[in-house]
Each structure stands twice: as structure tokens, then as C-alpha cells.
Amino acid sequence: MDAITGWWDDFFWGSLVVVELFFVALILTVLFGLIGAAAKLSKNRVANAIASGYTIVFRGTPEILVLLLFYFGSAVTLTAIAQVFDPEIKFVDFPPFWAGSLAIALIIGSYATETFRGAFLGVEPGQVEAARALGVSNLQTFMYVRIPAMWRLALPPFGNHMLSLIKDTALIAIIGLEETLFVAEQAIGYTAKPFTMYILVGVIYLGFSTIITLSVMMLERYANRHLEVGR
Amino acid sequence: MSFIDFALIIDSIPKMLVGIGLTFQLLFLSLALGTALAIILLLLRISGRWYLSAPTMVYIYIFRGTPILVQIFIIYYGLPQLEFVRDSIFWPILKEPFGCAIVALSLNTGAYVSEIFRGGVLGVDRGLKEAGAALGLSATHRFIYITSPIAIRLCLPAYSNDVISLMKSTALASTITLLDMMGIARTIVAETYAPYEVFISVMVIYLIITWTIQRSFGWIEKRMSRHVRIEA
Q1: What is the CATH number of the domain that holds B207?
Q2: Tens digits of residue pLDDT in A194-224
Q3: Does residue A153 contact residue A118 with C-beta atoms inside 8 Å?
Q4: Confidence of residue B231 (pLDDT cuts 50, 70, 90)
Q5: Which of B214, B184, B139, B194 is nearest to B14 (CA)?
Q6: Which residues of B touch A (CB under 8 A)?
Q7: Higher pLDDT, residue A230 or B221
Q8: Domain span at residue A63?
Q9: Which domain does B123 fall in, by range?
Q10: Taking CB atoms and an 8 Å limit, are A68 and B195 in contact across chains?
Q11: Which of B1, B78, B199 sits opposite A69 (nearest CB)?
């Protein structure tokens, strides 16, 4: 335990990076999931094909592979572009934070696509028809009828996606982002106490998972509050 | 900078395929061990005795709540810090990266799969178990002959998803120096600095494996529910 003294602040800042990463990736995940679901549900064949390709590729390949492809791929491309302007430049990379959050968001977004698609299909057609009969516009039907009805259905599986998301943030240490796992590696370099440091990282992630699980439980209760009354 | 280097793709695919054996070893060994562990955890969890089910729940909570990468690092880099681990009989396994990867993947997948199995067991109609009890079957017999066959069918889709995520997790073994497909791909990229060609080629190989797993489970599912289909 003594070994950790002096590293608390580093672990704190590392955890903060994880939190930032989580929220940025979460917003992108919802975005990709909604776009993907819309594309899968549309009548446009091209959109269908692209969305299917997206979910097949990102659900079928290891997360670390997607991450490394994004990071090193973007670095090679950016370096090539930069060298057109200035041949002196040796290496330009996409910041690991953004490459990482984009890669993770695309992966979890592909799972969210299926969840959202299922949830939209689960909305009772009668509700949508009723809105239409009342002369509510398409956009308003989407915002006030479809979304409130679908997110209740999507919440439990989406909670699991959020757990995968927080756990995948650990991978971004591999491309050099200073989050908790990276801090642990540095701390091990000084203290030679790998067990202590990695256990601490595990405890931090367990804390995050617990917070997410509890938040999802509360959100579920909030989402279904209108059903509670009868009970 | 040229466009796509096809010569490199053709050159690197056979090299990466050398690692497919290790990927499969990691997958099948940890799947077998993990599934066995999952059955033990399931039995403890549904035993109805709190001193057996409570530790199981803690175990599942910990292994599902932390990243698999951290688990791999704790086992491979962390455990050697502890003296009693180095003196124990498990040391020959835990000092090798392969042994550590198998242990980490099995422990992790065991936690996930036991929850899947539990879902299947809970999904079995109570009436069937009651009917078994009424016929005088013992609890063990009811579990083996009534609950298990139905539960297995119920949890097969979720189980196949977990096999796929285990397959994806085997790629993390490359972080502890193992040269599975991912490890070889990373080595080639480090040498050639051609991430697109190499990583996309290995991506295609992984996609083929995923597709094969999905199709095989689809076939098993169809076969196992053939009596249901005829009725319908």
C-alpha cells in the first residue's frame, strides 16, 4: 500500500481522462447508433447495405485491431498529407484521445445500432398512427412519440453497452493515452509493484462499472415511473 | 507514398496465418476451461446456500466489472510480485505468457458464461420442473434431464455471442508478447509501417472466423430445436 502514496494524484487525473473519454465516446456512440438504426430501418437499399456492413465489420473484429488501425492508419495518412506541405515533418498523429474515442464509439455504436433498431421496431404502431391521425408532423412524431417509447425498451441493453464502453477505454492506454492503465505502467516503472498498481486500476474500473450499473437502474425506474402507479 | 501495397498483403497474410493456430488454441482452451468454470459457478449460484452463492456473485461482479486487459495485466505482470505465487505449484503455468492468457481468458469468460447459463436455467418453465418433482425425480435428476436440455437451447444464442467476444479477446494476448495473429500483425506493422494493408488483411481473417462461429452455432441451434419446428 505504501507504494501507492505519491501516485494518488496521477491516478486521479488518469481517472478523469477515463471519465472524459467515456462521455465523449458515449455521445458519439448514441449518434452512430441512431444513424445506423435509421439506415437499417430505411427503405433505401444503399443505406441498408452500408449499415449492415458497418455492424458486421465492427462487431466481428477485435476491439484492439480497430483501435490500432485507426490510430496508426490516421497517423500514416496525416504524415503523408503533412509531408506534401513540409517534407521536413517526420511524424504527425491524430491525438490518441480522439482516435481512441472514435474507434470505441464506432465499435459500441455498431452494437447500439442493433439495440436501437430493435427498440424502434418495438414501438407500438398504434401510437405512431394515433400521432399521424392527430396531424402531428413526422419530426414531432419522432421526437415526442417514437423516442420516448423506444428509449425505455433500449435502456437495459444500452446499459450493457455503456459497461462495455467504460471497459474498452482501458485499451486506449496501448496507444499512449495517459489514462489509469498508462499511469499504472509509469508507477510500476518507479516502484516495481505491478500487482498493487494494476489491482488499483481494477478497483477504479470496478467503481466506474458500479456507478454506471446504479445509474442505469435509476434511469430505468425513471423511465418506467408511469407504470409504477398501478402496482 | 504509394497507394495499396498488394505485394505486402500477399506477403504478410501467410505470415499472419501462422498465428491462427495460437489464436485457436487460446480460443478453444479458454472456452473449454471457461465453460467448465461457468457450470461450477452456476451450480454454486443456484445452490440456494448463501455461503456458496454470495462468493460466486462477488466473483462474477469483479470479473464482469473490470476490463479484460487489466485482468490479463494483473495475472501476467502483477502476480509475479507476490512471493507465494512464485513458490506455488501454479508457477510453471503463470510464468509463461500463454498460461497467463489462458487463465485470464478462462476466468473472464467463465464469469460471463455462468450468467448466460443462469438466464437459461431461470427461463425454464416452472411447470416442467414441478411435473418432474411430481413424478418423483430427485433434484439432481430434474436438473440433468429436464432443466439442462431446455436451458442449453435457451441460452445458445447468447452463448454464441460470448464465444465471439472471447475470440475477439484472444487478440489481447498480443499485449503480453504472444504472437497470435494480432501479435504477428503488430510486428509486421512495426517493421513495414503499413497499417492499412496489414491490419485490414487480418481484420478480414477475423471476420471469417466470426462468420464461421456464427454459422456453426446457427446450425446447432436449428438442429437442437428441430422438434419445435416440425410442430409449428
Answers
A1: 1.10.3720.10
A2: 999 999 999 999 999 999 999 999 999 988 8
A3: yes
A4: low
A5: B184
A6: 1, 61-62, 64-71, 73-74, 77-82, 164, 167-172, 174-175, 182, 185-186, 189, 193-196, 199-200, 202-203, 206-207, 210-211
A7: B221
A8: 2-226
A9: 6-231
A10: yes
A11: B199
